[in-house]
Design a protein that fits this description.
2 copies of one chain form a homodimer.
Chain A lengths: L23 E4 L4 H18 L4 E2 L7 E6 L10 E6 L2 E6 L2 H16 L8 E4 L5 E5 L19 E2 L2 E2 L3 H13 L3 E3 L15 H15 L4 E6 L3 H4 L11 H17 L5 E4 L16 H12 L5 E5 L19 H6 L10 E6 L23 E6 L15 H9 L11 H5 L8 E7 L15 H12 L5 H12 L4 H21 L37 E2 L18 H6 L9 H4 L2 E2 L10 H24 L7 H33 L11
Parallel strand pairs in A: 1-2, 1-3, 3-5, 7-10, 7-16, 10-11, 11-12, 12-13, 13-14, 14-15, 15-16
Antiparallel strand pairs in A: 4-5, 4-6, 8-9, 17-18
Helix pairs in contact in A: 1-2, 6-7, 11-12, 12-13, 13-16, 16-17
């Protein structure tokens, strides 16, 4: 299957005045990373200017100079770009810093920035910037909306030119780690830690290393039973411990630069330490000890909850689960364990409060997990540019009592005793020709990487960068696509589950509405709507979840009058006639926003149509087809939500619009 | 995989006084059918009495005599049993009649009937008594609840000893036709009409013929395109017509006794004549002409409806579809076409009115289709003995203006100009060791056959016959199992969708409750519940469906005060406070019946437990496990239905029971 180049297409830059800088490049460095940097420069200049840059063996009078320096401020991955008298110097402490510098430079060309007097320093503000792929060994992708896996085919690991292009895309935005297989490790994927797969994994590691990307693998916690034939996976059992030590020794003999492992344990049917009456730290530490000698890391997911809940029982709250399991274990994890915490307490909804563990874990390494695979946010059919949502999360104050108390401070390691370690995203790629199904969904892939590198970039800046590199250079294109991206999250929120209540999606598939789809189920995600009202009481009178936050957040959420509208139904069960802070009643807000959401999508289609003759036909029509499906979806959501609540509440829409 | 013998286990008959009749058998007849009859006698006598009957070459003084006679009253398949002076004479016009006589005789032994002065004549009252298997060539079964297919394995047709036992089960209850493959003909099953499968089909036909069973196959209407490479399947296209004539000639050269074909066209994504602007008669007749030279029959399903309906549109009514498509075509079908009409207008719900085509088709061959695969009636986990339901259907008067106007008269060919031809059931078998998953579900398999043969048998009689042959001979076993069977349909109806509204099941799977599961879907099966009431208006003010019946049924259904309670919500949208004929309100009836349904199941479990030491342990525990699952299911239905309607109506249960 052929594939495109996403934002690395290096479109011809017409009328660019600074082309002359890109004739010659000079460096003393050698090695695979430098080769990749130079190859990228050649490819880009050839495509942008019609002539590839030449590596010269002397410092040119006009050109580019890559050099290693020793500047503490640049740390391991940062770089400096300086233009002076015709020469652009790219400086870094490491070769990977130089590669990042090259990508920054090329991005600036694509966006037609001037080179004269260029002077900037860029250092990633988070240590771990990671993707999690949920690709299965059989080639399918769990929650994949863009074709099948390009990592796996016929139960084999594929390493080819597309894998290289994948690595280039990651490096170009600064992503420095990736997990290629599904956290639900099944079938032959359990055998990645055996001889069967070492050969192909070696090739992959070698390739990724040359782009500064650490390979991680998802691990089957029960591998000691499934592969080793042990009768137990008890983390305190000596035979279990011995098996893992031996196994990890073998793994690291073969793959010495492997980053480590991601583990989903005791969750949604996966095995884990709970089976043996042990806690999550027992499980994580046992594995961590086994790989500590090799500088390996265990990334342990906090998405642990009871998925056999009784819908009748209002005392159990899935939202509390991660907090309840992990807060009490703060400090119990080894240094080479990193907890991976979902952004919110449920599961990647269009709106959730942030997970209250953030700011509470003061002695445990952790990263935040977001999802750019649009499982609940339109599945890469509906446009939903998630960067503004991630920005809100990053900018959220935790009130943990330190000066820098936002989540982004935390993930940068600037508060909570430096235990924040970075950010991971569930990836949205597949083997479709444009990588992400909907072309516009690539903005989330790109944007996640950029935001992972630099929390201070704005959603608008990121959108613009991506558009410049992706679409023809026209003011109207830049403007329209940017507006489409920036309105899309809000639009999606309008026509789906209202006021923070979440879910209401088709069970299993998670696309399209099914208001009661999870209401009488075992999954712990309820809306509790009846004739009088709707919402989950998470105050002290309910599940007590609101109290898990630091004040003043705990008070703000606890109080129905101060709880933000967009999270009202997440925290409170209220009557349909409850007056929101926006002065509307809950029911009228539901009607209004749903009708608005459909109108928004209609407007988006009109906006997109205006670009028909300014965009390549293939891309234009691919996206247009998505928009039409999105409109159907929005209408279905609107009509089902409105009918559902009208039929239940018997309260008329005060504007008398059509409800079924 | 090993398998059991269902009701042909021929348990030892202790203390039976008439054993002496079963020492010798005499007949002049030869041939495969007679061989099978004699083999059955040998097997049965050996198992029941410990000594196999012997075939003797003279008329014995005490024993059995099989002989062909020529009596108009016995028709093709009937038989006579006469005991006189120690000799039991089995007489029939055909060998298959003799085989049926043998099975009747053995059934009477299993039930310990006396032989002295035995004198009876049995003639099947319906011509076609058929099973439809929805088995796929890959071995799976659509709506199969008892393992995989025993007809297909690895894309091959299997003919082995189990196939023979299957044929014996059919013949023992008088089933004389079967369709072995799914009406949704996909993959290699399309190739059954090619050389690829002729060899194995020949073996199957030969086996079935020797038990009086006509083999039919489901046909892919688009085979002329998929196999023949034609560009169209237009039934009026000369190349299409020619292709089918040629193809059928080949088929019947190889399989001269093949019964014919079953066709699902223009339904749920299947191809059909509508694609070419033709009607259903055009499609059926084209195929019928092609097989008429070989006495082949086309059975054409009437389950044709729009499965892309908009839930917002209340003018379309799926219940009308079969009537609207086929009523106007009455008389347009060739003589060797038989329409197969589902018992009700929706889809095998626990309660539906009968399909109004019955009694309206006066110039078209037709049979009724019922479903013993318990797709919507508990999936062979929940006990649901369907014979009482089928009896109600058969006994229903159509008011077609003739003296004998019930559906059973119709299917017997006794009214509507003899165009009624019989009955078919979607089968409930699979390759599990006991054939039907839940042992008690075999009562539906057995019962369908018996009822197909004789509409006048009562549900109780059939139950008793089946129990005698299946379980140890103990009064308490007979009594308890009989009571369990007879209460089960009513119990299932109590805890599932109320008052004839239907569906409310988990989409796709069709097991367990999902009240809104089909409410906002494209399938045309809605309940229209809102705060005020529930039900579908099928009166003249609504979809007009009620008027499709003859008076007085049309008036009875049209009028909310005369419409039977159990079908009220099928025909009328009423308020929750509407008073039923049983004096209860609709909402209180919903609450009451659902709590009752759970109590019934609890009672059933107690009843079953009382048999623990009277039944073989394996069977006891297999059924017990089903009952426990049924109780979970009943509780889930009860709580979800009651919570749903309480939350929507805000009307309290007047008995104050727990609703969530």
């Amino acid at each position: 299957m052929s594939w495109e180049q996403a934002w690395l297409k290096y479109q011809a830059v017409k009328g660019y005045l600074d082309e002359a800088y890109f004739k010659e490049v000079y460096t003393l460095e050698e090695g695979k990373i430098i080769e990749n940097a130079l190859a990228e420069l050649r490819l880009a200049t050839n495509k942008m200017f019609g002539a590839a840059i030449e590596r010269v063996n002397h410092l040119p009078t006009k050109g580019i100079h890559l050099s290693l320096v020793s500047k503490e401020c640049l740390a391991k991955e940062g770089f400096q770009l300086e233009e002076k008298n015709g020469l652009i110097a790219i400086m870094a402490n490491t070769q990977i810093g130089l590669l990042y510098g090259v990508y920054e430079l090329l991005r600036r060309v694509a966006c037609k920035n001037k080179m004269a007097l260029l002077s900037l320093t860029r250092v990633p503000d988070k240590e771990l910037r990671m993707l999690n792929h949920w690709d299965n060994i059989d080639g399918s992708i769990e929650r994949g909306y863009s074709g099948d896996s390009f990592f796996f085919e016929n139960k084999q690991i594929v390493v080819n030119e597309r894998t290289r292009d994948y690595a280039r895309l990651l490096a170009s935005v600064g992503i420095n780690a990736t997990v290629i297989n599904n956290v639900n490790v099944k079938q032959e994927a359990t055998e990645f830690i055996t001889n069967t797969y070492f050969e192909s994994l070696k090739k992959l590691v070698e390739l990724f290393d040359s782009y500064g990307i650490k390979l991680f693998l998802s691990l089957n916690y029960a591998a000691c039973m499934e592969l080793g034939g042990l009768k137990s996976a008890d983390p305190l059992d000596e035979t279990v411990i011995a098996w893992w030590h031996e196994r990890m020794k073998l793994v690291y003999q073969e793959l010495p630069t492997l980053g480590g492992f991601l583990v989903k344990a005791d969750s949604e049917g996966r095995p884990g330490p709970f089976t043996y009456g042990r806690n999550q730290a027992d499980g994580a530490n046992m594995l961590a000890k086994a790989i500590a000698p090799y500088n390996g890391i265990i990334i342990w997911r906090c998405f642990v909850y009871n998925c056999q809940q009784d819908w009748r029982d209002r005392t159990i709250d899935r939202a509390r689960a991660a907090y309840d399991y992990f807060y009490e274990l703060d400090g119990a994890f080894l240094d080479n364990v990193i907890l991976q915490i979902k952004n919110g307490p449920l599961d990647f909804q269009v709106r959730e409060p942030f997970m209250p563990l953030f700011g509470k874990l003061k002695k445990t390494n952790h990263i935040m997990e977001v999802q750019i695979a649009q499982e609940y946010t339109g599945q890469q059919i509906d446009l939903c540019y998630l960067i503004p949502w991630f920005k809100e999360l990053l900018d959220s104050r935790t009130y943990c009592g330190e000066e820098n108390d936002t989540i982004k401070d935390l993930l940068k390691g600037k508060c909570c005793n430096h235990f924040g370690r970075g950010i991971a995203a569930v990836a949205n790629t597949g083997n479709s020709e444009n990588w992400t199904g909907n072309d516009l969904a690539a903005a989330n892939f790109y944007g996640f990487g950029r935001l992972a590198w630099d929390s201070e970039l704005t959603s608008e800046e990121i959108a613009k960068e991506w558009i410049c590199q992706t679409f023809p250079d026209e003011e109207e294109v830049l403007d329209t696509v940017s507006r489409l991206l920036l309105m899309s999250w809000n639009t999606y929120e309008k026509y789906t589950a209202p006021l923070g209540i979440g879910f209401m999606v088709t069970p299993h598939y998670h696309y399209g509405p099914n208001i009661d789809g999870y209401e009488y189920s075992r999954w712990g995600t309820y809306h509790r709507a009846d004739h009088f009202g709707i919402g989950v009481d998470r105050t002290k009178k309910g599940t007590g979840y609101a109290s898990l936050y630091y004040p003043p957040l705990s008070q703000m959420y606890e109080n129905v009058d101060t709880c933000p509208d967009e999270l009202l139904l997440f925290f409170h069960h209220v009557s349909y006639n409850h007056i929101l802070q926006n002065k509307n009643t809950v029911i009228q807000h539901i009607y209004d926003t749903h009708f608005e959401g459909v109108k928004d999508v209609e407007r988006m289609i009109q906006m997109w149509k205006g670009l028909e003759h300014k965009l390549p036909s293939k891309e234009f029509h691919r996206v247009e087809a998505c928009f039409h499906k999105q409109l159907d979806n929005a209408k279905e959501w609107c009509d089902q939500i409105n009918s559902y609540f009208y039929r239940k509440s018997a309260i008329n829409d005060k504007r008398g619009r059509k409800i079924y």
